[in-house]
Amino acid sequence: MERMNTDPTPFAERVLDVVERIPSGMVMSYGDIAEYLAEGGPRQVGRVMSLWGGGVPWWRVVHADGTPVPGHERQCITRWHAERTPMRGERADMRRARWDGDDG
To answer: What biological-process terms (Gene Ontology) are attached (predicted)?
Structure first.
């Protein structure tokens, strides 16, 4: 049986680098990250996050409608409250919380 390579791919490294840079209290959607990198798409970013996202602030990556990662909603919302992420109900307020990738 072939052993799966557990090291992140170069694309995965780029995705994880972007996620690490998302400021506290801000979010990016899977599609935002793909668009920022100008490669892949939301599903590819989601795959990276599911395989290697545990070591980065994963709760700052959301669906386009601001909903949290499925199965981790409670943890996500708790972290958003702690970071004062703008919210609308139980989702991130994408108009106010979306980060555009600009560090300046």
So the answer is: DNA repair; methylation
Q: What's the pTM value of the predicted model, to 2 decimals?
A: 0.91
Structural domain contains residue 66:
yes
CATH number assigned to the domain comprising residue 20: 1.10.10.10
**Count of C-beta atoms within a 10 Å radius of residue 5:** 7
pLDDT tens, position by position, 54-81: 999 999 999 999 999 889 999 999 999 9
Total number of domains in the chain = 1
DSSP state of 58: G
4, 69 in Cβ contact below 8 A? no
